[in-house]
Write a structure and sequence with these properties.
Strand content: 25-35%
Largest sheet: 5 strands, mixed
Helix content: 25-40%
Number of helices: 3
Shape: elongated
Radius of gyration: 21 Å
Order of helices and strands: EEEEEEEEEHEHHE
Distance between the termini: 18 Å
């Protein structure tokens, strides 16, 4: 099976060719073969609107992101929902037997934890500044800890719908397919 896409209006066209034991990613200048056995994680996500993506994480290179919408040469969005849906199903069929990948859907947990870390650092800095200005309520470190915990809870609550969930490759969640 072949699937052609362009990740951005300025990006290079790419073609993904699924084989029996791996897939090949073709660019204008390069060709890269990735065996299914090297895929350690698969995440499908839904972006704004009707845009879907599958993220493949090989163990020896950067992730491969495959969108359901592509861009034409003049920069217009091209909907490839039918082809994308078929690609995801065939890819999962190959991966279920030939890979030990973990399958998840939804948001990226790394980004959520990054936001938690950033909010904790901001809480600490605000607490130290408040103490320096003389408006601190309690010990600045205790105050920073309380603010950090509260901000972490807020970040997690706002991202509760987008937390990653695992699934089996034979039961792809339909809300993540066009």
């Amino acid at each position: 099976m072949e699937y052609s896409f362009r990740n951005s209006a300025n990006g290079k066209p790419q073609m993904l060719v699924l084989g029996d034991y791996g897939f090949t990613l073709h660019n204008e200048t390069t060709e890269e073969a990735i065996p299914y056995a090297n895929i350690v994680a698969v995440r499908i996500s839904r972006s704004i609107g009707k845009s879907f993506r599958v993220h493949l994480y090989p163990d020896d290179r950067r992730p491969v992101v495959i969108p359901s919408q592509s861009f034409s040469e003049n920069g217009k969005t091209v909907d490839q929902s039918r082809e994308y849906s078929m690609l995801v199903r065939v890819l999962h069929h190959h991966l279920k037997d030939k890979s030990k990948a973990s399958f998840s859907c939804g948001g990226n947990s790394d980004k959520i934890w990054q936001w938690v870390g950033i909010s904790a650092i901001i809480s600490f800095v605000l607490s130290i500044i408040a103490e320096y200005l003389g408006v601190g309520l309690i010990n600045p470190y205790v105050q920073a800890l309380i603010l950090a915990v509260l901000s972490a809870i807020i970040v997690i609550v706002f991202n509760a719908r987008n937390l990653p969930k695992t699934y089996e490759p034979t039961e792809i969640p339909l809300q993540f397919l066009p």
